[in-house]
Amino acid sequence: METVLVRELKAWEELEGVVALQEAIWGRDARDLVPRGLLIASQDEGGLVAGAFVEGRMVGFVFGFPTADPTRHHSHMLGVLEAYRGTGAALLLKRFQRDWCLARGVRQVVWTFDPLRGVNANFNLRKLGATARTYLPDHYGPMTGINAGAPSDRLLAEWDLLAPRVYARIYAPPPSPKAEGLPQANRVEGEVPLEARLDLEAPRLLFQIPEDWGRILREDPALALRWREHSRQVLGHYFARGYVAVDFLRHPNRYVLAKDGALDR
């Protein structure tokens, strides 16, 4: 496996490289990219822009900035070129961000992610140990590039940097949680959501999302909108009742939702 090195970026030329990476990852037609000048200004005011390098080539980056709470950092973007998504670059970028934040007195990092992108949910909840309890409908308004085609609903990830579960996930990942016997909050056939179950009371339950949200966004706008409305209904309902997204299962893609107090079972 190729060696990945992560370090903070300094020169404006490197920050221009971050703009090029954004275009390659999210699409050259995307209008939601962060320009070089804003990256530089954010760094000037205590923000982080770090890059992941393989043989001297920047293949990924993470960008975050301070919030009104000095112990909380907002991680706005993390991206890795598709060809390097099996190298561990994304995890190394988040480890670097964690260490960088802890050295500055930051105890929590937050960011948003699309609740229907299984790869992202798996990385955030399973691999990093973040949790989510807040649903943000159409948070960014209409988007472009690979995010075009449906309202920009997002979950707010909360990454508590000193939590034992976070340290365990990023350095000694536990086995996947068992799904047997857990009730599911929706019924899905193929890639189509058929029914929402809003009457469950179990300490833990599952919520299934599509296997390939990107394909649905590209090819079937009506189904994409149906999934948005479905996830908004189910996740919004259970979050309001005190459930938290604490883990993720692949194939099929399913969130594990737990009542407060059952987070680390």
Automatic annotation (TrEMBL):
Residues that span the membrane, as ranges: none
CDD domains: NAT_SF (cd04301)
Domain N-acetyltransferase, first and last residues per copy: 4-158
Protein source organism: Thermus brockianus
One Pfam family of this chain: Acetyltransf_1
Protein name in UniProt: Chorismate synthase
UniProt cross-references to InterPro entries, sorted A to Z: Acyl_CoA_acyltransferase, GNAT_dom, GNAT_N_AcTrfase_prd
